[in-house]
Design brief:
- The complex is a heterodimer of chains A (254) and B (229).
- Chain A is an alpha+beta fold.
- Chain A has a domain at 144-245: Dihydrodipicolinate Reductase, domain 2 (2-Layer Sandwich).
- Helix content of chain A is 74%, strand content 9%.
- Chain A has a four-stranded mixed sheet with strand order 2-1-3-4.
- In chain B, a hairpin with a 2-residue loop joins strand 1 (9-13) and strand 2.
- By secondary structure, chain B is mainly α.
- In chain B, strands 1-2 form a two-stranded antiparallel ribbon.
- Chain B is 71% helix and 4% strand.
- In chain B, 36% of the residues are buried.
- In chain B, helix 1 (20-40) crosses helix 3 (76-94), helix 2 (51-71) packs across helix 3 and helix 2 (51-71) packs across helix 7.
- The chains are: A alpha+beta (254), B mainly alpha (229).
Chain lengths: 254, 229
């Protein structure tokens, strides 16, 4: 057992060289690698935490947006429903109004048509009544209707003479109107008779096609007439009474 | 029978005889450095670690954690020194099983060199850490009377380190050689296994003791030390 001091010196040098070599090629690379990996892992974990937080914030924002959209959708649906209801009510009201208007128009038209028909019926009834009366008068008494009307009108003047005289006042003309031109004989008789009562008054004859068949006398503010209009009214009343009480096909009243 | 590899000259270079101790030390150095270079050549953060790199990381981190446990702090320079001590002694002792390999740690010159290295490293680390005054003050702690004892203690540490390592390794090799001559087929295996175990333990003890000595010299002064004039 001996110590070789040259070997000792060499071994000290060798050991120091080995320390440097291992420091250079082992410890530093390994420890630096571990440190770098730790830094990288820490950085990645930090990034992961940040990414997680970011994902959570994005998720929260998404949830908020979805919730806002749901709320907006509900509000929009409610608004649309209300608008639709209002629009439906408006349309229904307009339709009802238009229907009422059309109904009123239709009713007015119907009334107008009915009025026209009644007038037509009155006219036809009057003509028929006049024709039948004229025919029956001719057949039974061999007389003209117009002459009998004139005679009847003149007959009505006599009892009303004072009233007519007051009404005539200072009138200088009396007007006799008829639906058709009166026969000359009838005009003559009327002129003769009237001038017997009112000698100062001139007689004038007029034709009014709109007037009911018959004769109308106007002196000043007085008017005296005989037309079939009153008979037509009586005919209406009789027919309505007959229809109200009922009438069978044979014309017998039950 | 040569008890020390110092007496075995392997070859001569430029007239200088290279004995087995130095030669096999170079072998161990080349082996350690070569393995380190090969494994750490592709050491980049973007390259995933392989099993060899992981093994080296486990070894280095194990040494570092042991030093941290003993010293109470992480210190790179202490790792370089004590870690190299451990690796050199451990690899030298483990290569005992290789036929024809003479472990350099079986040479008293090597163990003396290592002990001297520790002996020199202790004041160097202490002065670096505490400053020259702070380090020298530790020799008169707790009182001036302790100065000769502290100096003796400092040298006895180195001597004990050297003798302990040398004795264990050399005795293991000598006993193996003796037993080989007595029972050549059985005892060498048992002794080799025992040698591996004791070799690793000795490496551990040597490195730990060196760490203890150096960390004791570099430890920050306690409160009682600060109060002492």
């Amino acid at each position: 057992m001996s110590i070789d001091w040259i070997t000792v010196a060499a071994q000290i040098a060798n050991f120091l060289v080995l320390v440097w070599l291992l420091k250079r090629f082992l410890y530093r690379p390994i420890l630096d690698g571990i440190d770098a990996r730790e830094v990288e892992i820490r950085q990645r974990m930090q990034e992961a935490v940040q990414a997680k937080e970011q994902a959570q914030s994005v998720e929260q924002a998404y949830q908020d947006k979805v919730q806002a959209l749901n709320v907006a959708q509900s509000q929009m649906t409610e608004t649309i429903r209300k608008t639709a209801e209002e629009q439906r009510d408006v349309l229904l009201a307009e339709a009802q109004k238009r229907l009422n208007q059309e109904h009123a128009t239709w009713q007015a038209h119907l009334d107008d048509e009915a009025q026209k028909y009644i007038e037509k019926m009155h006219k036809a009834g009057a003509q028929a009544l006049l024709l039948l009366t004229r025919k029956a008068l001719k057949d039974l008494a061999d007389e003209d209707l117009e002459a009998r009307i004139a005679h009847h009108l003149v007959g009505k003047i006599k009892p009303m003479l004072p009233d007519l005289g007051r009404a005539a006042g200072r009138a200088s003309e009396a007007v006799i109107t008829s639906q058709a031109t009166l026969p000359v004989t009838v005009e003559g008789e009327l002129t003769t008779r009237l001038q017997r009562y009112f000698p100062q008054i001139a007689i004038r004859f007029e034709v009014n096609e709109k007037q009911a068949p018959g004769i109308v006398l106007r002196i000043g503010g007085a008017e005296l007439e005989w037309t079939v209009a009153s008979y037509i009214d009586s005919l209406d009343a009789v027919m309505q009474e007959q229809l109200a009480t009922g009438i069978d096909a044979t014309g017998k009243v039950p | 029978m040569n008890l020390s590899p110092d007496q075995t000259v392997v070859f001569s270079a430029w007239g200088i005889p290279i004995n087995a101790t130095v030669f096999y030390t170079w072998v161990v150095m080349v082996l350690l450095t070569g393995v380190a270079i090969v494994i750490t050549r592709n050491l980049r953060p973007d390259v995933p670690p392989n099993r060899w790199r992981t093994t080296l990381e486990v070894i280095v981190q194990g040494i570092e954690s042991q030093i941290e446990e003993v010293a109470g702090r992480r210190e790179r320079h202490l790792l370089y020194f004590a870690g190299t001590l451990f690796l050199f002694v451990a690899v030298s002792n483990l290569l005992l099983v290789v036929p024809g390999f003479a472990p350099p740690t079986a040479s008293l010159s090597t163990t003396t060199a290592l002990a001297l290295s520790v002996l020199i490293a202790v004041p160097l680390f202490g002065i670096t850490s505490r400053g020259l005054g702070g380090y020298l003050k530790t020799y008169i702690q707790p009182s001036f009377i302790m100065l000769p004892f502290n100096i003796i203690s400092e040298f006895s540490r180195g001597i004990s380190l050297a003798i302990r390592l040398y004795g264990n390794i050399m005795s293991g090799a000598v006993i193996a050689a003796i037993l080989l001559s007595v029972a050549p087929f059985f005892f060498p295996v048992v002794m080799d296994v025992l040698g591996l175990l004791t070799g690793l333990i000795q490496a551990y003890i040597f490195a730990i003791l060196a760490t203890v000595y150096i960390s004791g010299a570099t430890a920050p002064p306690s409160n009682s030390e600060k109060e002492t004039p």
